[in-house]
Records
---
Amino acid sequence: MPNIEIYTQPGCPYCVRAVQILASKGVKFNEINAPHGTQERLDSISRSGGARTVPQIFLDDRSLGGCTDLMHLESTGELDRLLTLG
């Protein structure tokens, strides 16, 4: 089972949508609260190569990007493949 981490911020509709997509897949994931100005947000920026938006999603330390990226992976069927392979 792959290790999935998602950095989110309270009140972010994109974060809610990304969490819904992951939850619909029935996979376990670690949601990390990362509001502006926190160490968690800085970690997210560093891990993603500089992306400052949330959510930021990682699969086994590989950045998948944000919500739009996740929605694209879902629409093409690639997300299921990635979740199976890890």
---
Amino acid sequence: MFAIGSVVGPAPYPEMVGYFQSVIGHEAREQFLKATGKLPNKVVACVGGGSNAMGMFSGFMDDESVEKVGVEPAG
């Protein structure tokens, strides 16, 4: 049973979350390329539980020219 959205816990949870969230990054990459004809210079994602960052960065992992920035909100 998949019960958490963070990239934590025993296997296979981190791999499952990464796979499910990867749709976000791949879709963002495709849409950005379609809209601009190039890749972004930088991609920014929240790193709180890791799922947002893992999802967004997954679409750009093989693109060395794209800077990946993880941010953590304070509060």
---
Amino acid sequence: MVRVKICGLTNKESAWAAVEAGADAIGFVFAEGRRRITPVLAREIIRSLPPYITTTGVFVNEELNQVNQIADFCRLDLLQLHGDETPEYCNRAVRPVVKTIHMGAGVPDDEYIQNRYGERVRAFLLDTFVAGATGGTGQTFPWSSVQKMRIRTPIILAGGLHPVNVAEAIRLTQPFSVDVSSGVETNGQKDPAKMREFVHAVRSCSPVFFGDPH
């Protein structure tokens, strides 16, 4: 079954709406941007959540000690790194790491990425390259490029996903998980109905690709 992460949550109401929609994981952005949240508020939200929901902190080129302190303070489960963090940086993080690969500025050298990071990260997140941005842009990249990759580490698909296109994206890329932010928003705010629609779309298509005995 393809897992679902809903990212960029900024308040308790939207976090609980994501959980009630059926998200397996939720994400908090600690980098600059309109979805940025304070560690104090993130910790308060996380402490209110039911068990078995994976919590992720999103960082971009943040000083490692600061990342580790926030991870401990908020009790994050995972770290999602969107910048130029090195394998050594990932290795010294106090939580398992998901490392972002920015797609669209030429096909990445996936063997190089696998050999350099594969043993030090839990998964690779594929997001759309947009000059001057590090994520959450709502833009897709050619999903056919994923079929050419030889990454052996689990793949998380992001970049412009929404309830209408996520089934096709899964069909073409067969990821371990999908990650959505702007695709479940209305007027810049998380929309409970769109979150439910997104999770339903993922759940409806997952058995076709992962449970068909034929």
---
Amino acid sequence: MAEGADMEHLQEAFKRFAIHGDTKATGKELNGKNWAKLCKDSKIIDGKNVTSTDVDIVFSKVKQKTSRVITYPEFLKALQDLAPKRFRGQSQEEALMSIYRLVEKGGPTNTGVTKVTKAGAVDRLTDTARYTGSHKERFDESGKGKGREGREDLVENTGYVGAYKNAGKYDDKLKGEK
């Protein structure tokens, strides 16, 4: 098997992933989601030899029938099952040591997490170039707000429907006919 120091690092990695994302976790049991995350973040899942389906199948094999989590000994058994599949050209012992090294290296990563914008919130929220639809109508070309005219539909008692193109031309037309 592995040396004592290596097993301590492996157990620390197990605990880090066991408590990841769960404030009530004790670090003694690893759920299926965190097991898949451990395999993905540690690069056990390579897409060719080991896929996420393989990882799920191994998890189901090593856990107790009624349980939804695996313990540390079951975790070691799961790694033992995945090692020859991940490192095909190596012996069972070499493959197991290689997979232990992969797991020991890392902890949970935060990939795909939304980044904080560099610009201030006020700059981002008041950038009128990003406004669409009716909100765009509230600002003039320079980006300055139109005030009350931009927020409310002001009633014009001209007798024409709003946005009518020929508004005010009827009187001119009558004058032209006389």
